[in-house]
Amino acid sequence: MTEPAGIDALEARASEAFLALVAVFRKIDSSARPARDAGAAAVVLAARRAAAEPVRDLAWLEEARERIPELTKTELAAFRLVGMGMTNREIAGAMFISPTTIRTHIKRVHDKLDVKGRARLALAAHILLRPAA
Asked: What's the pLDDT tens digit per position in 48-61?
């Protein structure tokens, strides 16, 4: 069985990126913010669950990469900030738009990239949007 083009490169970057992402979530987890922001707490919990399972199938990541051009500039900016571990409220503040609008943009990113879950979305952003080494 042959793997999709680019999957080897993704696998090579995935473990390093995943460890960096887990570090971001640990930073979020150690702050007082999760106690005040249920959304951030849910992201931390999702990251812990994802960290407990090895990354076996990265085909979803390759498919997400192919769909990135479908994102609007605002969706791409929100996607990038999700990859930095920011909450919807923080993204809204950084982009000077309402949290409800950000929630809509991030839902569209989920739908367009066909990525389920905030932790997977953050992992995808972290891997796919950072500059190539």
From this structure: 665 555 555 678 88
